[in-house]
Write a structure and sequence with these properties.
single chain; alpha/beta; globular; binds beta-D-ribofuranose; binds calcium ion; EC 3.2.-.-; EC 3.2.2.1
Length: about 300
């Protein structure tokens, strides 16, 4: 199985991403780190522990950056609620917060593993950028980085920027420049991972405590997506990044040139994907272009059914 670290900002879809990472038999979840994103770090670092505790998963969880490398944090309470996991009553997390920083936990995990470890990032890339900036010696220990963010098309936080890219575009630029294999899973594919009524029925039928908690999360998530975007079948972005590693055949990738806008007055955080090689630059990333939707959901449901 593939050893992975998940760096996240839960967040409803981050919660499902954590469960897919913990429950999928092809993955070995070694550690979880939290970053400020959808809501401030105090919530995301607690929420990560809550969703893992609900699922009976015992891995170290550490808190990382409270905000972007060089900007003010932008949050998304209108989608995820004031505490980041609107919907269910939140229990006290059984998992403690690891005393190490996210960078220290990632570094220790990379150094202790017998093979390179993949990092799946489902929030702004701040923690991953700090790791690569402060511990460049560890880059060879990272098998690859798979990130939910960006888009080959339009945005969801501004007309041309996706939320995770907009929050910390400098972090994305730093990670892209690191030379570590990088895969972007953007809105162009995650907008196909829709939480339809049939998906909710299948998930609830898993019958686990995790499934019941997840159903309350998805009810809230679909309601806010309907209010904000007019999409009652909310797009469950983050688990698609996990699926790239859990079930590679399920997400189609293209090797291409990826850059991010750092100075635009209207387009800050926009991802520029040069499929046609118009800029004459070397390809530097893999970009998701297709999703086997049924296979994706089957994997999510199966993972949730394996948890507590
Ligand atoms: C991304 O932004 C967050 O609100 C979600 O958790 C996801 O990571 C989608 O744009
Ligand atoms: Ca997220």
């Amino acid at each position: 199985s593939v050893p992975i670290i998940v760096d996240c900002d839960p967040g409803h879809d981050d919660a499902l991403a954590l469960w897919l990472a913990a429950g999928h038999p092809a993955l070995d979840l070694l550690a979880v780190t939290a970053v400020g994103g959808n809501v401030p770090l105090e919530h995301t670092s607690r929420n990560a522990r809550i969703v893992l505790s609900v699922a009976g998963v015992d891995v170290p969880v550490a808190a990382g950056a409270a905000g972007p490398l060089s900007r003010e944090l932008v949050t998304a309470e209108w989608i995820h609620g004031e505490n980041g996991l609107g919907g269910p009553d939140l229990p006290e997390p059984a998992l403690p917060l690891d005393p190490r920083s996210a960078t220290e936990l990632m570094a220790d995990t990379l150094e202790a593993a017998s093979e390179p470890v993949a990092i799946v990032a489902t929030g702004p890339l701040t923690n991953v950028a700090v790791l690569l900036r402060d511990r460049p010696d560890l880059a060879p220990r990272i098998r690859e980085i798979v990130w939910m963010g960006g888009s080959t098309e339009r945005g969801n936080a501004t007309p041309y920027a996706e939320f995770n890219a907009l929050v910390d575009p400098e972090a994305l630029a730093l990670v892209l420049g690191s030379g570590v294999r990088f895969t972007m899973v953007g809105l162009n594919v995650t907008h196909r991972a829709l939480v339809t009524p049939a998906v909710r029925t299948a998930l609830a039928a898993a019958g686990t405590r995790t499934a019941a908690f997840g159903d309350e999360l998805l009810e809230f998530f679909c309601r806010t997506n309907d209010e904000v975007f007019g999409m009652p079948d909310g797009p469950l972005h983050d688990p698609v990044a996990v699926a790239v590693l859990a079930d590679p055949g399920c997400v189609e990738l293209r090797h291409t040139r990826l850059d991010v806008e750092l100075t635009g007055t209207e387009t800050l955080g926009a991802t520029s994907v040069d499929f046609d090689g118009m800029l004459g630059r070397e390809p530097n990333a893999w970009v998701a272009v297709g999703l086997d939707v049924d296979r994706f959901w089957a994997g999510v449901v199966d993972a949730v059914a394996r948890l507590a």
